[in-house]
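Incident log entry.

Two folding requests arrived from the same account within the same minute. Monitoring flagged them as a possible duplicate submission, but the sequences differ. Recording both here for audit purposes.

Request one:
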Amino acid sequence: MLNSITMVAVNVILNYILIFGALGFPALGISGAAIASVISEAVAAIYFIIYTQKNASTCKYGIKWRFAIDCRVLKKILSVSVLMMLQNGLVFGSWFVFFITIEHFGERSLAITNVVRNISSFLFLFVQASASVVSSLVGNLIGKEKSTPFLYVCKKVMLSCYMIILPIIVLFALFPESILRIYSDNTALVFDAIPTLKVMLTSYLIAVPTFVFFSTVSGVGHAAASLLIAFVSLSIYIAYVGIISHFSSSVPLLWTSEHIYFLSVFILSIYHIHHWFTGINSQGKKIITNIP
């Protein structure tokens, strides 16, 4: 949390200095924003190193500060991380396709999508945080063979996430104009963006269980399955966007692609978890699945 605060503070200050040319610096515009982002990330990395040096037990965690490459360990890390990198690349690629499609409908449609996407990113912070928690806890429970049912953990995390985002969703739905005016003072744009905003908000009712169970797949170490789920779901997502855009230029209708994507990921994740449980149980192994 402290690292995030530090990174954001540095980014905000440098954005002001480099974009507008404050304190004698040249005004760099959008290039200044990029430079500020890079510097803030570097500051975050340095913060983590200093924090670890001062607070982490080198004996307990086997930390060696002498730089060396262990090819055996690196190979194990890459065997999982490469799959995760491909998965994230697919997600960003699908968003690129979505924005290119929207762009063909005109500047107004693209502006609406950008505004709604910014609001969606705020809500996604809570969902992503919950998903990260599930991934860590499930991996820990499976690794240590704890008696706590990890599906019970998923249930608890989902309820916690809903308790946070549901009031926000209701607030945004009741006062859409006030929320949209944070991002634009164009009255016509704000009015046109309201239907799209409401469609986006409903997608988060599905997003919570989707990302919790999807992260469970990653948490138990099934990186290849996670990649396959993402690939199939994004293929369905892109096909849906292509079909809808062929028959309609409605931005709210195109945003229903989020529902299709979340549903696809949810169904495939549940199927994989169920299939995994069935396979383990058929081999006579003990698996922790009960939900009190």
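Request two (distinct sequence, not a duplicate):
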Amino acid sequence: MDEKRYLELLRRTLLNEIYIENDVRFLYLFATMSVHGNIDGNVVRQIGRHKADWLNGVKDARREGRPWWLINYTDSNAQPQTLNLRSVCDFNHTMVGRLRLENLEKCLDVIRLENIPGDVAETGAWRGGASIFMKGYLQAYALADRNVWVADSFEGMPVPSLPQDAGWDFSPAKVPILAVSLEEVQENFRRYDLLDESVKFLKGWFCDTLPQAPIEKLSLLRLDGDLYESTMDALNALYDKVVPGGFVIVDDYGDFEPCHKAITEFRDTHGITAPLEEIDWSGVFWRKTESRPG
């Protein structure tokens, strides 16, 4: 089907699978400069031949949304070291990986085929990739009556303020690449020709924007706030708007302990017994069965 082919091309582009060799070229260039080595033009031109193990590693990591920008090497004192090249190499439009994007499409398929009512929302968008994919899906199947809500500070992650988030500081001072402006995300939507009035941006901290958001019903809620506080703020404000039969997708359940804790506490507190299904090493989802959280 043309819709499936379009969505697969969209997925490959968002993940930068089409030009994935360039990601490996950046790794090689910056890794070589970091250790004051000499750049070999032949390696740059034929990166797949000379760095096949790096290329295969990046492909595997991209499939599961794992970090791929870490390079291990041995220094001049024969000591093992690791270079973190994320700030100069991570240019794709989403970090979620192929498996989570495929799961997102499957959930949207169910929503479409079973005519589950409601908009779709993402809390924590980074460069907008997952939200762009949702908008692309709605466009491909002419589901023009649904909005895509994109909630983010568009200033990076907050400095942890709760004890549950202690030790998990990914604020701009620590990880500046996570701070992506609203204008940049809007431009990313525009590049895919997917920016229109049905894409609604909610700029600010979740505790300020989500309780007041004019969202009536959600068929899908995608949580990517990482921290306990951010995850709880999103659930408390929006879970009751997810209709029975709708989906809740959690990006960081297996990666961030604060997120894991928030999901566990919320489900326990509200008696949510719908099975929590694994997507990959980090992502999980469940299908809402109850009419209210409690």
